[in-house]
Structures are given as C-alpha cells and as structure tokens.
TrEMBL record:
It is a multi-pass membrane protein. It comes from the Bacteria. It holds the Pfam family CitMHS. The chain crosses the membrane at residues 39-57, 104-120, 225-244, 265-283, 289-306, 352-373, 385-408, 420-447, 459-477. It is found in: Membrane. This is Sodium:proton antiporter. Keywords: Antiport, Ion transport, Membrane, Signal, Sodium, Sodium transport, Transmembrane, Transmembrane helix, Transport.
Length: 486
C-alpha cells in the first residue's frame, strides 16, 4: 500500500518525458540507432518499467530487488543485440556494452572496498561500542534525537548514509523501545541527516560517488555543499525537535570491549580515502585504483593480526587467570582470526547487483535513444536549474541511483554550480519520502511498524522546507560557480 500510492506519479512523469518530446536527436554520444519509436524501443521501456515496479514492491513480494533488474538488463540487451546485428552495426552495440560494463566495474570495486572496511569496523565492534556509549549515558529523548541526528550527519560522509542510518536506528530502537512516537520521529531525523551528510562527500552516497568518478566535480569542490547540507538537515530537525518528548528512558549499561586492531582499521580507512583522492587528483586516474590499493592495506593488516594472534591471546589469558576473570576467559575462547575475505563476502551484494541491473538497463535505453530524447526536453527546453531541482523531487519517488545514472548518461552541458545542484538535489531529495533513499527503505524494515511510510509522509512539508532552503542557500553562496563550465 505504501509504495503503490506513489507509483502512478512516477510512471506518469516517466512516460511524459519519454513520449512528449517535440524534437528528437538522433543517436547520441555513442552514435547508435534511434529506436525510440520502434516496437523494440517500446518493449524495452515496458520491460524496464515493469522491473522497477517489482523493485518498489520488494517489501511485499519478498523478492530481492536485484532479480527483476538483472533479468530486464539481459532481455533489453538481447533485443539490442538482435536489432543491431540485423542492421550490421554489431560493433557499435558491443562498444556501448563494454563502456557501460566499465562504468559499473569502477563503481563496483570502489563500493566493495568501502563496504569491506565498514564491515571490518563492525566486526571489530566499533559500532557496538558507540551504541553502548550513547545508551549508557541516560540522555532524554530530545537529547538523543539531536545526538543521533548529528552523528548521522557527520558519520555518513565517511561510512555512507545507509550504514550510518542503520547504526543510529539501532540506538534509537534500543533506547526508545515501544515509544512509537519517538522512534518514528527519530528515524525520520536520522534519514534526513544521513542523506544530507552524504551529499557533500563522494563517500557519503552512491550518487555523489558517481558524479565524482565521472569527473564533473572534484573532491574538494563537494565541500561547497557543506553549508547547504547542514541547512537541509537543521531546518526540519529544529521544527521536529519541539514535538519530541523530554522523558528520560531507562538507562541500559553495557560494556563493549573493542577487538584488537579496531582503531588502527579506522586509520587505514582514512589512509585509503587519501590514497583514492591522490590517484584522482594527482594522476587523473579513476579513484578506484586508490581504493583497491587501500584494500591491500587492510589485507596486510589482517595478515599481521593473524600472525600475532597466538601471542596476543597468551598474554590476555595469563592476565585473565591472574585476575580470576572468567568473563575475559570466555571472550578469549571465542576469538576467531580476522579474515578480510569473509568481510568481502558480507558486502551488500543485492545492492551491488541491483546497481548493475540499473546501469545496464539505463545504458540500453540510452543506446536506443531515450536519454537523448529526455535530455532534449529537460536540459534544452528547460532551464538547467529547474531541471536539476526536478531531478531531486523525482529521486524521492524513484531511487536516486537510477535517476543520477540517467542524468550522467545524458551528459548535459552544465556549469559546476549546476552539477553541484543536481548532486545536492538527488542526494537530499530522497528524504522527502521514506521510499526515496536506501536509508529510508532500510529503516522501514529495521523499525517495522514504528517508522512507516505515512509516519514519514506526515512530516514531508517540514522536510520540503529544508529541501527548498538548502537549494536557495546553494544558489546564494555558490552563485559564482554557475559561470564555470568544465
């Protein structure tokens, strides 16, 4: 029910954009065949729309979102292969396919390293320690509302908005318990904060990462979105905070002992980020080269942890026996060697495969000529500023990943200010609805029955104020960047 109510709106927008163009460009950047008014083109759009309907119904069908888009991508490219073979243009289709595969491969490897580091930090109990500290301090609900929101805002630029939102939600659920009003409003605050925090960092969201890797915005230029991102979070948070109860929940004391090497993994992750930025800024190589080098840092450190594990356990065992600490002995007995490849295996593969399906589907539609058509409508006939603001609103209905990939595939000629605008809009626009971002969808599952679509929708007018304020501030502060064309 929650997602079905939103479906007709984005379907209407999609078909309007696809079929209301007054003029169409032929081909595109890849000089492919224009098949927008062919049966194959209509079939490809229908397959993609149907696959995306299944994605939006994931919660009800219990069907992982990667499955329909993987199948749709295969069918669409099979049709493209057949048509291009009949026209004797197989080489063009193959080059387009390889280009899209390369785009996906760079993002896949980048995200895989980032997810591996986050998983390693989780395994070393860093997030458990943070959660236990907040729970044990005895904060009241309003203070906890602000702490979880601010932490979500400042952690998400490094640990990505999805991981950060789930971590803060775990704290809220542990403290809030059955206090449904607090859990709902705190989860909304976390979603808005995590998405806003991820908008000014290439590591905060897949959409910002895509823009950075495409070379439209440099690493340091994302910092121009810092103040607009703060405003996007603070405006709704200030208003919502007046409706958060001041009651104090029961304090839960829990001791969490960090595993060996936990803090050093944080330092290695920071070093990995610096390496990725250096490869991109100094050598103009894709950042993924630096990230893969950073994975080697973690692998060598894992080797060190395994080789020194026996000596470390011997010292801890002797100390525990001397202190007659049975709990410590039990913890020592449950220690297992750190394994980097186990961390890689625990990456969110459904999300990574979903992203593959989206990239290949959108790439196929681009080769058929549809993205050229859409680009002709919104980025030629409209002012780019309004087009980018509209992209942000669309990202609250359709997930921001396919929206941003479609924009990048269109390759509109825009100023740096407009590239920052579309990055901001797509990143924070997903907060308008609970289904607009991965963070919102994940929290609906984590806080099932307490954080809901309609519970989030009730605060949509307040979130829209933050969305409008952040865009207005960006236009005011960074107006000079709208004269810089790359």
């Amino acid at each position: 029910m929650k997602r079905m109510r939103c479906l007709p709106h984005w379907l209407f927008v999609l078909f309007t954009l696809l079929f209301s163009a007054s003029s169409m460009a032929s081909g595109g950047a890849n000089h492919g065949l224009n098949l927008t008014h062919s049966y194959f083109g209509y079939a490809a759009v229908t397959i993609f729309v149907f696959a995306y309907v299944l994605v939006t119904l994931e919660e009800y069908l219990k069907l992982r979102k990667s499955k329909p888009v993987l199948l749709a991508a295969g069918v669409i490219w099979a049709m493209i292969g057949y048509v291009y073979q009949q026209q004797g243009a197989t080489e063009i289709a193959r080059e387009a396919l390889e280009y899209n595969l390369l785009e996906y491969a760079e993002l896949l490897l980048f995200l895989l390293v980032a997810m591996t580091y986050i998983s390693a930090m989780e395994e070393r109990r860093l997030f458990d320690a943070l959660k236990a500290w907040m729970v044990s301090k005895g904060f009241n609900y309003r203070t906890l509302f602000w702490i979880t929101g601010l932490l979500a805002f400042f952690i998400s630029p490094i640990a990505d908005n999805l991981t950060t939102a789930l971590l803060m939600c775990a704290v809220v659920l542990k403290v809030g318990g059955n206090h449904r009003q607090f859990v709902n409003i705190a989860c909304i605050n976390i979603v808005v904060a995590a998405n806003a925090g991820g908008a000014f960092s290439p590591f905060g969201d897949i959409t910002t990462l895509m823009v950075w890797q495409a070379g439209h915005v440099s690493f340091s230029q994302f910092l121009n979105l810092f103040l607009p991102s703060i405003v996007n979070y603070m405006v709704p948070a200030l208003i919502m905070s007046f409706f958060v109860p001041k009651e104090t929940p029961d304090t839960v004391n829990e001791h969490v002992e960090l595993k060996r090497g936990a803090r050093r993994i944080i330092l290695l992750f920071v070093l990995t980020i610096a390496t990725a930025v250096s490869f991109h800024s100094l050598f103009h190589f894709p950042p993924v080269m630096g990230m893969m080098m950073g994975l080697a840092y973690l692998q060598f450190f894992g080797y060190f942890l395994r080789k020194t594990l026996a000596g470390s356990l011997a010292k801890k065992t002797a100390k525990a026996i001397a202190n007659n600490d049975e709990a410590a002995l039990k913890r020592i007995g449950s220690v297992v060697p750190f394994d980097v490849f186990r961390r890689i295996s625990q990456a969110e593969w459904d999300t990574l495969l979903f992203f593959y399906g989206v990239v290949m589907c959108v790439g196929g539609l681009s080769l058929l000529g549809y993205l050229t058509m859409i680009s002709e409508v919104i980025y030629t006939q409209w002012d780019p500023m309004w087009a980018n603001i509209t992209v942000g609103v669309l990202s609250s209905i359709i997930d921001n990943i396919p929206v941003m990939f479609a924009v990048l595939s269109m390759e509109p000629y825009m100023s740096l200010g407009n590239w920052l605008l579309v990055t901001l809009a797509a990143g924070v626009g997903g907060s308008l609805l609970s289904i607009g971002s991965a963070a919102g969808v994940a929290l609906m599952g984590a806080a099932h029955g307490q954080y809901t679509f309609f519970g989030h929708l009730k605060w949509a007018p307040v979130i829209i104020l933050g969305y409008a304020a952040s865009i207005t501030l960006h236009l005011m502060l960074n107006h000079s960047l709208f004269n810089i064309f790359l």
